Request: fold
Amino acid sequence: MYLKSLEINGFKSFAEKSELEFSSPIVAIVGPNGSGKSNVAEAFSFVLGEQSIKSMRGKRGEDLIFSGSKTSGNLSRAGVRLTFDNSRKIFTIDFPEVTIERVVYRDGANEYLLNGSKVRLKDVLELLAAANIGASGHHIISQGEADRILNASIKERKEMIEDALGLKIYHYKREESERKLEKTMENIREVNGLRKEIAPHIKFLEKQVEKVKKAESLREELSELYHNYLKREELYLADLKKKFDEEGKTPTSEKEKIERRLDEVKKILAESESADKKSKELIEVEGELRKAGEALEEARREISRLDGMISGEERALLRAENEAKTAKAVAVDLSEIENLREEGEKILAKALKEEEVSTLRGLIGELLALLKDFVTSKKTNEEALKAVKEISAEIAKLQEQKETLQKKEGAFEENESVTKKRYESVKFSIEEGRQRGREAEREMFTLMNRRTELVGILNNLSSRADQINREEGAFKEELEEAVTLLGQPVLHYNDLALPKDFLEEPRSEQEGRRKKLEKIKIRLEEAGGAGGEEVLKEFDDVVKRDLFLSKEIEDLKTSAESLQGLIKNLSEKLDIEFNTGLKKINAEFEKFFTLMFGGGQASLSLAEREVRKRRLTELQGIEEMEDEEEVEIEEGIDISVSLPNKRIKGLQMLSGGERALTSIALLFAISQVNPPPFIILDETDAALDEANSKKYGDMIENLSKYSQLILITHNRETMSRAGILYGVTMGANGISKLLSVKFEEALAVAK
Reply:
């Protein structure tokens, strides 16, 4: 037995460390639905390098880590460790025991360890492929995936069978050799490109060597011309800068003065802008003045109303006093009533014409007093005396109200006067500020126009300064180039004497000297301007490099031929191994199929199909894409079946149960030909009836002679074939736990 143990810690529902030992050829894992049985199969896929989180029923890497429950917190990592017995050297490393471990963290990072040392996923996959083990495939058949080989395309089916036959290692080696070959061919192209690049340079250097002797005389001529050119250019630039500095002083100084005055004017304008705030103040004062006038007018109207009421009361008082002096009232004469009516109509006529409320109130009071007096005059003397007292009290009350209003009238008059003075003061201040602002604004526009003129002048000066700087830069570059070409002696140009009027010569003459310099430099370069020793050294170096590249191309070609031979050998070996394995699988497939169905025929065969693919191509000379269709030939494996006593010739005509039996027969046939160290079957027997379950159990026992079997099942017949039975339970805390029973030990105890 190769598989020793599986340790799960934090993976999915296995929050606590759980370990399964595989000391029996057949180990069964049972438990109720939802207890976490299938998580064991997924733990195998995980540790063997499966990259599809979806195939392990998750969306992200963190979905594989225990996410917590009501009583337990979530974990930060999940790890699965698988231990193999390598005493028979099924793995290509020199260790008696091989432990492969994979850890995933909450951020999705993965870590792979081989015997405790960190390794790459590629290292793990290659090690497993050499032992006929992969992350998924023929040896890990999850629930619902037993039918996958029947539903797969012919190409995918061929890849599954190659994986089962242990041919993946050849694919890895061939792909790696093809990558190396492609890299080698790319290196050959690059080296050839380098040789093509330096070939013209070699020819050029050969000519340069011949011209080295001519370079010395040109160098002497160039040195003499440089002395004259550099001396004149340096003095010319110094004179130009002096004139420029003098010319720029006046506009710069004037602009600074204008800037200072502009700041002062802007302050004045800012003060004038405060007139807007004073305008708001003026509006507020005007409102206060209006309110003061309204209050004064209201007080006067109220005083007028009180005067009317007092006047009416005084007349009523006079009548009451006269009445008090007379005897007891007698019957009223019609003429008196007529007089009363006439007086009342006069008062009402005035009231109808009056719009002022206070005056109207006074007239109403007068009318009431008239009526009161008339009634009073007809009463007894005692009643008249009583009326006199009441009217006198009312007059006193009205007089008191009038005095109070007269005091308020005086206060309102004083407030109105003060507010008028304040209004006039604010209004005058606004007019004065606006006048200063208009003058400052006119001055600001004048200053800004002059500043614009000065900016234009200074910009022109700046352009000239840039030109001078460019000429100075060109002079420095020319000086550096002169030192590069002729060395330090060229700097002695200051020793050269020039005529006094040299600054008066046309600038075109100096330009002519520069052009002559360029021509001589070109001739010097053609004649080996870098110096004879440098040219000879460079020529020797380039020739050596060309010889080195030539030898490197030969070595690369040899390597490419070796890789091509290796790829050819691997392809031939892959074809031979595949065809041989396919024949063996066919024989076993026929046997298992007949066993499962009691007859019939089943076989695998190589097939080719046309696959149409669409691709976008760019039209020549036009930035557009055209949709094209191309046909590729796809090679793969086709499956033919014929059931006994039925006219069924194709997979698509099989029922669900028949497809399950066919896929089981094929998977067992594949495993029988090239048995992997272990096979995991996750409820592949779920669709089998009792008769087929027994056949399935017999096949399992036969298969266990070649591979260890881990069975996840609910089937009693399948359980009975296991040597160790692991039960998976899940409590209220959502954590899966393992219980184990070894049937051999149980039987021994029972006996």
User: Anything to note?
Assistant: DSSP finds 14 helices and 14 strands in the chain.
